[in-house]
Amino acid sequence: MAFLSSLDISGSALTAQKLRMNIVAQNLANADSIVTATGEAYRRKSVVLSEKTDDLSFSSSLDQAMSINGGVVVSEIYESDEAFIMEYDPGNPLANEEGYVQRPSINTVEEMIEMISASRNYEANVTVFNAVKDMAVKALEIGR
């Protein structure tokens, strides 16, 4: 049934956007973390989304292109390689010999924009999910 695959697509997007919001929340929570288990400041994490594919073979790709399969999946969560912000704080016990402390290069305004974007995407997919569900219920009522 086509409506079931529509629910699967919307459900995969809901899962991906939830993870995206969790990663943004981690970034915001650690925006001031100057030391982690690795001994350096927290590094910003980002989520990479890609199309959901089950198999990379040609025949499977052709079958998938001809059907209504799909969805989205988190293909990677990566840490930024951006340089840390060096802040002069000679009284800090974690300061280097010159008195500087490494701070994460996280822009909280950009993170909030990312959070709003993920939240709006989540809301849109909830709307799609509910619309498909309502259509299925209406179709069942017609069949009575």
Query: Could you report the average pLDDT, rounded to the nearest whole number?
Result: 88
Number of helices: 3
* Strand order in the largest sheet: 1-2
Strand content: 15-25%
**Can you tell me the residue ranges where pLDDT is under 50 for at least 5 consecutive residues?**
none
Q: Summarize the amount of helix as a percent range.
A: 40-55%
Order of helices and strands: HEHEEEH
- Compute the number of strand runs: 4
Rg, alpha carbons: 22 Å
Biggest β-sheet: count, sense, barrel?
2 strands, antiparallel
Could you say which overall geometry the principal axes of the C-alpha atoms support?
A: elongated
Spatial gap, N to C terminus? 18 Å
Counted up, domains total: 1
Category from helices, strands and their pairing: alpha+beta
Protein architecture, described:
This protein is elongated. It has one domain. The chain has 144 residues and is of the alpha+beta class. It contains three helices and four strands. The strands form two sheets. A two-stranded antiparallel ribbon has the order 1-2. The protein has a two-stranded antiparallel sheet with strand order 3-4. Helix 1 runs antiparallel to helix 3. The longest helix has 35 residues.
What is the element layout, followed by pairings?
Blueprint: H1 2-29, E1 45-51, H2 58-66, E2 72-79, E3 85-88, E4 100-103, H3 108-142
Give a concise summary.
With 144 residues, this protein is an alpha+beta fold. 50% of the residues lie in helices and 16% in strands.
Keywords:
3 helices, two-stranded antiparallel ribbon, alpha+beta, 4 strands, elongated, two-stranded antiparallel sheet, 144 residues
